[in-house]
Amino acid sequence: MSERRRGRxxxxxxxxxxxxxxxxxxxxxxxxxxxxxxxxIASDRPSTFSDAYPESLLTLDFANSGKAVEVIADLAxxxxxxxxxxxxxxxxxxxAAIAEALGLxxxxxxxxxxxxxxxxxxxxLARAGLPSPSYRLFRTxxxxxxxxxxxxxxxxxxxxxxxASRGVIRADGPAAFVTAFGRVAxxxxxxxxxGQPGSEEILVEGFMAGREVxxxxxxxxxxxxxxxxxxxxxxLDGPFFEETLxxxxxxxxxxxxTAIAAxxxxxxRVLDLRGGPVHAEVRVDAGGRPRLVELAARSIGGLCSRxxxxxxxxxxxxxxxxxxxxxxxxxxxxxRPAAGVMMLPIPxxxxxxGVEGQAEALAVPGIExxxxxxxxxxxxxxxxxxxxxxGFVFARGDAPAxxxxxxxxAHRRLAFRIRPT
Amino acid sequence: xxxxxxxxDQSGSEAALKDRVQELLDAAINPAVAGHGGYIExxxxxxxxxxxxxxxxxxxxxxxxxxxxxxxxRMIFEEIPExxxxxxxxxxxxxxxxYYAPSKG
Lengths: 421, 105
What we know:
Chain A has 11 helices and 21 strands. By secondary structure, chain A is an alpha+beta fold. Among the domains of chain A are: 3-113, Rossmann fold; 134-206, ATP-grasp fold, A domain (Dna Ligase, domain 1, 2-Layer Sandwich); 338-421, Alpha-Beta Complex (Aldehyde Oxidoreductase, domain 3). In chain A, the strands form 6 sheets. Chain A has a 4-stranded parallel sheet with strand order 3-2-1-4, sandwiched between helices. A 4-stranded antiparallel sheet of chain A has the order 5-8-6-7, sandwiched between helices. In chain A, helix 2 packs across helix 3 (92-102) and helix 3 (92-102) packs antiparallel against helix 4 (109-116). Chain A starts with 12 loop residues before the first strand and ends with a strand. By secondary structure, chain B is an alpha+beta fold. Chain B has a single domain (13-92), classed as Fe-S cluster assembly (FSCA) (GMP Synthetase, Chain A, domain 3). Chain B has 2 helices and 3 strands, in the order H-E-E-H-E. Chain B has helices at 12-34, 64-79, and strands at residues 38-46, 49-56, 85-88. In chain B, a hairpin with a 2-residue loop joins strand 1 (38-46) and strand 2. In chain B, helix 1 (12-34) crosses helix 2 (64-79). The longest helix of chain B is centred in the N-terminal third of the chain and has 23 residues, at 12-34. At the A-B interface, helix 1 and strand 2 of A face helix 1 and helix 2 of B.
């Protein structure tokens, strides 16, 4: 039993911060339910049962940490919370602010804020001497023609505050830079984005050649436990950086994997992250040297966590909740089979009219599930402007190569009818 | 061995349970989800399990599991303790008008 729960009866009380746009509600709510916690769910928009259960279904403005802290502190006076768990990027800052105010274990809000702004993160990593690309910050109202003369090529333009590769564009020369600058600025003027702190910033980094991997980890008292290392077999060379395949375990040499873990741990120390889940995107150059693209104080996004099972079947979400609540975790060892996911990319803009081939995709040996998350009638916006996927395909097998092949074959069998708009 | 029987030859107690769940849906649950364009269909009650389908704005909604676990389930368990499980049989991928759409961003 944790120190803070000593002497208190009843199940532990958990505050789950769930953006209404997350893919992960089911996984976190199921894990919390299975653990038998006293669950309080806060979302950014009202739940249908908020009136019936106002004490356990809250609506919080995640962008206003001060107000959110006030609301939760009031609630905690009636019955204290044992942990605050943010789901996805959108809630990490407010989650840290609430947990700090309640005296619960958390990363410092300032540390989380650094991870939420790609420029501030890049500054911190470079200042600490970690391998970094050259970088320069521009404002959306800067003159792109002038800016184009001051950066190295190839380079990558990106918003400092968005995630999931939204607005990330490679430019190989001044003309492409000017076009990309206009596209990124337009994304940042989107009403859903404009007005957020950092929505006037465009970060330009030197392009880092190499293979990309994703490290899923858990920080415990400042020590990084690697939960999984995913290869991304599709080259991410631009002009857009759409993520598709994630396959674990990695096929990189052990030495390179060790270096990736060390680079991630070093970045976490520099950024002053000490606890909870982390998700790192790392480029590995031809010499096997890792360079961090970014480190987020959250777990893997989308439905990708379904690829991971630990011990006798524990989900990643259960691991995260157990860690936050100081409940025992039997093992953090990932199950033995290889596993992978394909995030189904949106091939072109339009309206989804139908999907064929699901049964055929599911029939591919090794494929466990085909989960479509876009719905018929939905307006589809591909990268770099969009941030949604058509769905996810999951596979398991004896070896990563077989998993990758199964995912590619399943994807080949799926056909999406999209009416151009 | 479990009996193999259809909805029409349910035991009296199951039929009564089904009526009570339907009444709760009509009186409290569906008015709540109607605010988001949703409605809940009761498919059946067998033993102590209620089988439901989430329709309209609930079908495919990013917050459907909050509605299910923290709303529907809780209300049914509180009001009808004989029900110990609520199973969602919805094909959420087929929802064509979810109230909240998920995003990886």
